[in-house]
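Hey,

The postdoc asked me to send both predictions to you directly instead of through the lab channel. I've kept everything plain text so nothing gets mangled by the mail client. Protein one:
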Amino acid sequence: MLKNKEKIKQELKNKIEKEIDKYVDAMDSGFEKDFFPIDEIEELWGNAIKNCNFVLQQGTENILNSIEEKEIISKKKRINRYQEIQK
């Protein structure tokens, strides 16, 4: 039912991977310093979560925009006909 399902999946994976890479690199840089306070760690963690959520939000919009409505309508009609026959 989704158009370009594999393309959407790959784009999501790539974007999430970039966010994870940025997070791990930032954590690594922080630990390389003499002082890396917990509030900075929490901020990096919060930003990583926020950024990943944003990626998933955009991905959900892409998925919803790629639904083939004709197939859904056709499927619903088939289900309704089947249910009528079963009565």
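Protein two:
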Amino acid sequence: MNPTQMFDREEMMRLTREGMENSLRFFLTINENILKMGEWQMENLTEHNKRAVETINKAYEEHQKVSRVIMGRIETVCREVIKHATPQEKAAGSEK
């Protein structure tokens, strides 16, 4: 056997080209799938973020409502305490 019969240059070129094409196709497919997964996650994340913001806004509105009620009640109680704690002026004619 001579060296030219043991090593078929054309066959090696064909196998190399085929291997590179398959490798390139494989990595392109992986990249496309990763990009699709990223888009899915962004869509889901965006939807979750919208729901989270809505929940936070509702909680904030409820907090404001309750705070207004509490502050109104505190104000009323403070006015009553001040009213009862300060001496009342008697009518000018009733002292004599």
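Summary for protein two, as requested: The first helix runs from residue 3 to 6.

Thanks,
C.
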